[in-house]
């Protein structure tokens, strides 16, 4: 039995992966932002679980919430075999950027800085496992932006904000962090980033969209990959005896190329340094 923490486990791919892993006999720690939705998801996961999953409240845009979640996990488990940083925000209805109390743009805070800090805080528990793994998530939509770069001089600058730009900017950072972590912890940690394609949304998420956006999104949603497929991908990466052939793979576990900027070693080191500074210089086990 592995102990596996997964963020965003209350819906979509995260919920499917949590179901699959718990039904296979693993101990799932379901990290969810909203306690009410988290409790509903936990009942769903545990309906088929061999060992009951546990709910951990965590809002990845709030450093204090991340620290509290990491402390909770440390008290509940002596080690952590797998961390799946699945949770992300992609609110396409936003027309103006939203900023956290720390002054970070919400997409950057939730989709990059939050997973970065959570991984650092949980790294001692991962280091205590015999064969630990971290799984991060990127997007196939980056294929349409082969020249995308990290905006080091304007990470929280509102002038360039759009939901699409902010989302893919953070996803590029997730790829780069994965590559850096794979190098830093080589031989001690398996680090993988999954390139996720368009995934079919749950009915409640579609219903919550504004009417026009829901109408425009309907054809894309019908053609999208079922969340169950990606849930199985996550589960395989978490539990397979052998890791993937490269740190960046698609939904079918095939090696894929990232945007060129992700392979710039100096840029990756700079991203690590600014992420460290933005998250309070957390200690790492590697």
TrEMBL record:
<dbReference type="InterPro" id="IPR002347">
    <property type="entry name" value="SDR_fam"/>
</dbReference>
<keyword id="KW-0560">Oxidoreductase</keyword>
<protein>
    <submittedName>
        <fullName>Short-chain dehydrogenase</fullName>
    </submittedName>
</protein>
<dbReference type="InterPro" id="IPR036291">
    <property type="entry name" value="NAD(P)-bd_dom_sf"/>
</dbReference>
<dbReference type="GO" id="GO:0016491">
    <property type="term" value="F:oxidoreductase activity"/>
</dbReference>
<dbReference type="Pfam" id="PF00106">
    <property type="entry name" value="adh_short"/>
</dbReference>
């Amino acid at each position: 039995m592995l102990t596996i923490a997964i963020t965003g486990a209350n819906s979509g791919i995260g919920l499917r992966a949590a179901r699959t892993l718990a039904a296979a006999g693993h101990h799932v720690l379901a990290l969810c932002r909203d306690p009410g939705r988290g409790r509903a998801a936990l009942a769903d996961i545990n309906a088929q679980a061999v060992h009951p999953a546990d709910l951990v409240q965590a809002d990845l845009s709030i450093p204090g919430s991340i620290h509290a979640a990491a402390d909770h996990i440390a008290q509940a488990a002596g080690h952590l075999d797998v961390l799946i940083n699945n949770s992300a925000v992609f609110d396409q209805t936003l027309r103006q950027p939203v900023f956290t109390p720390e002054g970070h743009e919400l997409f950057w805070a939730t989709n990059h800085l939050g997973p970065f800090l959570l991984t650092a805080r949980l790294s001692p528990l991962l280091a205590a496992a015999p064969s630990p793994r971290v799984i991060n998530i990127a997007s196939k939509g980056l294929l349409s932006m082969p020249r995308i770069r990290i905006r080091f001089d304007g990470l929280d600058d509102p002038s360039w904000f759009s939901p699409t730009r902010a989302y893919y900017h953070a996803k590029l950072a997730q790829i780069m962090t994965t590559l850096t972590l794979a190098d830093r912890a080589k031989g001690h940690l398996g680090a993988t980033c999954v390139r996720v394609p368009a995934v079919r949304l749950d009915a409640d998420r579609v219903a919550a969209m504004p009417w026009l956006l829901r109408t425009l999104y309907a054809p894309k949603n019908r053609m999208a990959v079922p969340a169950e497929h990606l849930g199985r991908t996550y589960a395989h990466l978490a539990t397979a005896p052998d890791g993937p052939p490269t740190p960046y793979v698609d939904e079918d576990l095939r090696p894929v190329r990232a945007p060129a900027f992700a392979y710039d070693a100096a840029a990756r080191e700079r991203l690590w340094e600014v992420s460290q500074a933005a998250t309070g210089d957390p200690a790492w086990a590697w």
